[in-house]
Amino acid sequence: MSTISYTDLRRRLASAMDQVNEDHAPLYITRQKGKGAVMLSADDYASIEETLYLMSSPRNAARLTEAIEGLRRGEGETRELIE
C-alpha cells in the first residue's frame, strides 16, 4: 500500500484520486498528530461493501466458499451468454 502524508495529499489531491482509481490500490494517509486514514476508489469501496454483505450470512458465505473451491478443483462450467 502506498503512503502519503496529509500535507503532500493536500498539494496533489487530484493526482492521488486518479492514482487510486487507476491502480485500484488503497493509499494510506499519515498525519503527524492523530490517526491515519485510507483513500480508495469508489468502485473498490463498493466491491468491499458488496463482499461484506454477501459474506455476512454464514449460510451464504459457506455456499460461496464451496463454489470457489469447486472452481479451483476444475468443477466449473463454461456457458454462452444469452444476449
How would you concisely characterize the structure shown here?
The chain is of the alpha+beta class. It is built from 4 helices and 3 strands; from the N terminus they run βααββαα.
Structure explained in plain terms:
The chain is α+β, with helices and mostly antiparallel strands and 83 residues long. It folds into two domains: 2-40, 3-Layer(aba) Sandwich (YefM-like fold); 43-72. Helices cover 55% and strands 13% of the residues. The protein has four helices and three strands. It has helices at 6-11, 13-23, 42-55, 58-72, and strands at 2-5, 27-30, 37-39. Strands 1-2-3 form a three-stranded mixed sheet. A hairpin with a 6-residue loop joins strand 2 and strand 3. The protein is elongated. The N and C termini lie far apart (40 Å).
Helical residue percent?
Answer: 55-70%
Total beta-strand segments:
3
Low-confidence stretches: none
The biggest beta sheet, please? 3 strands, mixed
List keywords for this structure.
55% helix, 3-stranded mixed beta sheet, elongated, 2 domains, alpha+beta, 3 strands, YefM-like fold, 4 helices, 83 residues
